[in-house]
Amino acid sequence: MLWFQSTAKQLAKYSSRPLWKRLCAATTNIPVLTLFTKNPCPLCDEAKEVLQPYKNRFILQEVDITLPENSVWYDRYKYDIPVFHLNGQFLMKHRVDVKKFENQLVKLECQNDENQ
User: Fold this and answer.
1) Are 96 and 35 spatial neighbours (Cβ–Cβ below 8 Å)?
2) Are 32 and 59 in contact (CB under 8 A)?
3) What is the rounded average pLDDT of the residues 9-31?
4) Is-contact 87 32, C-beta < 8 A?
5) Which of 5, 21, 83, 116 could form a disulfide with 36 if both were Cys (CB 3.0 to 4.6 A apart)?
6) What is the pTM of this model?
7) Which residues contact 101 (CB under 8 A, 6 or more apart)?
8) How far is CA 89 from CA 5, 84, 104, in A?
9) Contact between 101 and 53 (Cβ < 8 Å)
10) Cα separation of 59 and 12, whole Å?
């Protein structure tokens, strides 16, 4: 099992396929960054560009708040997008705070290394 986790972690880290990264995330504890967005959202597009250098260190999950099944998120964030949660916890809104994001990402990566 250890070999699988190690191999899956490497594959997930370097794979460009989102599905493979999602499948591997369950066994490797890759952080999940949730972006609450809508279409159009120029600030969201800008935020994704800022996060591009980190793309191999997390899984990006986009949630369109305008979809009926996401009405709770729409009510909460309709005036604040983009909003980011890291592993289910609020992280930032409106613009990417690179320093805060990097610090939280490193913290999660260190926790994952300790637990392996």
Assistant:
1) no
2) yes
3) 55
4) yes
5) 83
6) 0.74
7) 51, 54, 84, 86, 91, 92
8) 25, 8, 11
9) no
10) 9
Q: How many CA atoms lie within 13 A of 51 on its CB side?
A: 27
Please name the amino acid found at residue 62: E
Nearest by Cα to 64 from 79, 50, 74, 75: 74
Quick one: which of 80, 88, 25 has its CA closest to 58?
25
Q: DSSP secondary structure string, the chain?
A: -HHHHHHHHHHHHH---HHHHHHHHHHH---EEEEEE-SS-HHHHHHHHHHGGGGGGSEEEEEETTSGGGHHHHHHHTTT-SEEEETTEEEEESS--HHHHHHHHHHHHHHHHHT-
Q: Is the pLDDT of residue 20 over 50?
A: no
pLDDT of residue 1: 37
d(CA 101, CA 85): 10
Q: Are strands 83-86 and 89-93 parallel, antiparallel or unpaired?
A: antiparallel
